[in-house]
Amino acid sequence: MRLKNVTKITIGIVFVLLMVATLQLLIQPTIAAAPQLPNNSCADCHRKLLFTSEKQRQFVDIRIKHLESGISCSIVCHEDKLNKSTASTYAMWSISTHALFNVTCEKCHGGNPVATSKEGAHSGLSNISIARANTPETCGKCHGAELEEFKSSLHFKKLESEQEGPAPACITCHQAHSVRVLTASEIEDFCSNCHNRITGIDPSVPKKAETALASVNELQVGLSKARSAIITAQASGKDVTEAEADLENARTILKHIPSVWHRFNLTYFDTEVQQGITKTQEAEKAVSGGPAATAPTKSSGFEGIMLLAGAFAVYFLKRH
Fold first, then answer.
1. Are 253 and 219 in contact (CB under 8 A)?
2. Which of 234, 243, 317 is nearest to 280 (CA)?
3. pLDDT value for 308
4. What sign does the dihedral 247-187-102-136 (CA atoms) show?
5. Residues 136, 142, 148, 150: is their CA dihedral positive or negative?
6. pTM of this structure
7. For 209, what's the count of Cα atoms within 13 Å in the CB-facing half-sphere?
8. Are 174 and 184 in contact (CB under 8 A)?
9. What are the domain boundaries of the chain?
10. How far does Cα 70 stand from its chain's mean position?
């Protein structure tokens, strides 16, 4: 009897397990199946979207509005070659400083960013503002100080005169959508594209440009050291008024360095940077400099020995 009960229990457990397995097979495909959304995925064009900031997450809201309106990015707006070009442009822009500060397409290209249709969004588009020769004025709407410095450069004068040969505009160095800022390690090779022995345009410029940009790092280090010295001096009760003034002057110079660079006068640029470095050194010296070192005094024993030696020398000379 006991054996029959065990057999029945075993059969019951096996039956339950088979039923559970069967239900899982029936239910699992339904759970695992991807939702069938309309053909309006931003990933059709932009496959590496990373919504890690509030600004980027706003694109999710745009996509939702597109879904609700039945607008397909991959069909209605960006077709064929334009689709690929737009995806690449967006990818470059999305990692740029412009994207970080929400400088979107219409700032340079025109158009209506709040429109919900292609026609409305593209109204007011103009190629005039993004024409290479016009980019300084377009960029200058936001970067006024840089534009003013650039207008005093030989680069701008050549661009304005429309002479033959290379005449750099904003997009030459910064590119249109990635908006890069060249580093000291990159600038020599980049400037060599125009400044070389083949073109005959001052081939000494690239190396000078690298040296000039590298000196900015020295200024930044000097600012950090001076600030640390001032904080230490304040904690010990010293008067740091003079040092703070020197430090503020150095900060002002560093603040204007990006615009000054666009003058493309390397001698002037280097003079400005060196002046800032000097100010940081003066600030640090004002709070950390100790009393002047005094010359060591001669001991009386040493003077006595010298006097005795002199007497013997005089005696020796008289005898001979």
1. yes
2. 243
3. 47
4. positive
5. negative
6. 0.60
7. 22
8. no
9. 42-95, 132-181, 205-287
10. 38
> Which spans in 40-134 are helix H?
54-69, 80-94, 97-100, 106-109, 118-121
124: phi > 0 → left, psi -120 to 50 → alpha, else beta; which? left
Instruction: Give the angle subtended at the CA of 131 by the CAs of 209 and 49, to the nearest 5°.
Output: 80
Report how far residue 162's alpha carbon sits from residue 167's, in angstroms, rounded to the nearest whole number.
8
How many C-beta neighbours within 10 Å does residue 302 have?
10
Q: How many residues does the chain have?
A: 320
Asked whether the beta carbons of 183 and 213 are under 8 A apart, the reply is yes
Output the CA–CA distances (angstroms, integers) from residue 149 to 131, 133, 262, in the order listed: 20, 16, 6
251: CB partners within 8 A, 6+ apart = 223
Q: Give CA–CA dist 240/285, Å, rounded.
A: 11
Cα Rg of the chain, angstroms: 37
Report d(CA 20, CA 14) in Å as an integer. Answer: 10
Lowest mean pLDDT among 15-19, 92-96, 299-303: 299-303
Q: List CB contacts of 113: < 8 A, sequence separation 6 or more.
A: 104, 105, 106, 121
- Over residues 198-220, mean pLDDT: 93
45-70: per-residue pLDDT in tens? Answer: 554 455 555 665 666 667 667 666 66
The phi and psi torsions of 287 (rounded to 5 degrees) equal: -110, -15
Average pLDDT of the segment spanning 108-113 = 88
SS3 content of the chain, % helix, strand, coil (to 5): 65, 0, 35
CB 278 within 8 A of CB 222: no
Give just the sign of the alpha carbon dihedral 229, 233, 238, 244: positive
